[in-house]
Amino acid sequence: MSKEYETVIGLEVHVELATKTKIFCGCSTAFGASPNSHTCPVCTGMPGSLPVLNKKVLEYAVAVGLALNCQITRECKFDRKNYFYPDNPQNYQISQLYLPICRDGWVEIDTPQGAKKVGIHEIHMEEDAGKLIHDEWEDATLVDYNRSGVPLIEIVSEPDMRNADEVIAYLEKLRLVIQYLGASDCKLQEGSMRADVNLSVREKGAKEFGTRTEMKNLNSFRAIARAVEGEKNRQIDLLESGEKVIQETRRWDENKETSYAMRSKEDAQDYRYFPDPDLTPVSISDEFLEEIRRRQPEFRTEKMKRYREEFDLPDYDIEIITSSKHMADIFEATVALGAQPKKVSNWLMVETLRLLKEQEEDPEDIRFSPENLAKLIRLSEEKAINSTVAKEVFEVMFRENVDPEQYVEEKGLKMVSDEGALRKTVEEVIAANPQSVQDYRNGKEKALGFLVGQTMKAMKGKADPASVNRLLKELL
Amino acid sequence: MANIITDETIEYVGILAKLELSDEEREQAKKDMGRMLDYIDKLNELDTSGVEPMSHVFPVKNVFREDEVTNGDGSALTLKNAPEQKDGMFLVPKTFD
């Protein structure tokens, strides 16, 4: 590579809002319903039907906008974006072109060179499209309109990012803010957060932007990072060999780690946007704005500050726990039930993260309740179970959210605190292992460990290792 | 007729609207569209400086609904519009993007 290049990246992020109903009708948005059961004349675009805006959508959009330092458009409206495709029964998508709800915001991300601001160009409200499924048997397409009309916000950034790390940092920041707001669970794998990457390269120092491409179908942070790297190299190769980058939409294939052109902008759609005549304009009052401002939650920075003041926890723990709203909620609720903060933190940081990683899940997927975690900590503190058993019980609780008290009772996992029973077992172990006993008496400390292990085994793990140790030493 | 619609324009509009027109229909459409634009020219004679663009025909704003599920299973009604269906879904010619 003879010249030095700079990559310029902007993102379009779609976020599915966590409302109970669709954006313009009273159909449920619940996931996993039978095909087309969540549909009505409005979300399938029947002539004569009348869409009415879900107030919660407006509230979420404004809340996200405020959290991302945007200007709120006080008089906004909806427009129709016209296109023909089977996922869209109306032949237009209701969106916002002329007066999007939020504009001119920014977020701060951490980079190796320090904090950096990424501009938010705009945020608009719109409806999602239906789902297309390829039918191998018929060699045809099946359409399910349950997702048609599910509310989305599209967050359009400025072209302020320069590499994959900045893209990931920006997305993580967005996700965190939106999760803290409860506006969406932002799961890339499940499609409740989708990112399209606009990327161009230019010679370092050049003023003009290069020709950009748009990359779609990125459903993990890993795919995004790879696609950014791959597309940057593809464009540089083109320029180096004297060719031109064509402005087009490309689809990333994660399995093949490559992208291919979907449609070029030359025969691009002409969307013929026009104001939607069915929906009334939205006028945002001072009172409405004030109410949303008042309801804004404690965001991560404030939460971290409070944790430092309230709980005796290392900064590292605080950082991990607050990196997920769901995990922070579980932490606080468990502590509120009387558990010691550091103990709660340990269960979250060690066992929980280990199991999440094993299952390839996110902290948002944690299913056990604070009540059950608090019970487990109490059982362990009262020495009703030892630490090995506690870990076993935790695994079951992590998977099935079982009540640890009940589980320990049912499975008979309680430690044997009956000194007589324990003493009897220790005596039996000593009698059964004369060689080890001899070794220990001859000064081989390691032999004691073996005898402790044998005793624990005989007790099926339900003994307190410290008591076993004490009794063995006493009887030897 | 002041506005003349070219063959290229009518061809392009046809692509956007997914319409295939016969020669006869094409000529008629060119005439109709020309007349529509003439009408717009007429409207443009009005001085509208200082007039807010209208975004709704009635002077209403802020019509909202609460976020509450009011619709039940609508699949039977919706699928009545499906020329072909399979497994509760619309069956359409193979489409990909």
Task: Tell me what the structure shows.
- The complex is a heterodimer of chains A (476) and B (97).
- Chain A is built from 15 helices and 17 strands.
- By secondary structure, chain A is α+β, with helices and mostly antiparallel strands.
- Chain A folds into 3 domains: 11-202 and 262-287, no CATH class; 298-411, no CATH class; 419-475, Arc Repressor Mutant, subunit A (Orthogonal Bundle), CATH 1.10.10.410.
- In chain A, a hairpin with a 4-residue loop joins strand 14 and strand 15 (258-264).
- Chain A is elongated and about 90 Å long.
- With 97 residues, chain B is mainly α.
- Chain B is built from 3 helices and 3 strands, in the order H-H-E-H-E-E.
- Chain B has helices at 7-16, 23-44, 75-79, and strands spanning 64-65, 85-86, 89-92.
- Chain B has a two-stranded antiparallel ribbon with strand order 2-3.
- The longest helix of chain B is centred in the middle third of the chain and has 22 residues, at 23-44.
- The model of chain B has no long low-confidence stretch (mean pLDDT 90).
- Classes of the chains: A alpha+beta (476), B mainly alpha (97).
- Chain A binds chain B through residues 19-21, 25-28, 34-41, 44, 46, 52-58, 77, 82, 84-86, 132-135, 138-145, 251, 262-263, 270, 272, 275, 277, 279-283, and chain B through 16, 18, 55-58, 60-71, 73-75, 77-79, 81, 86-97.
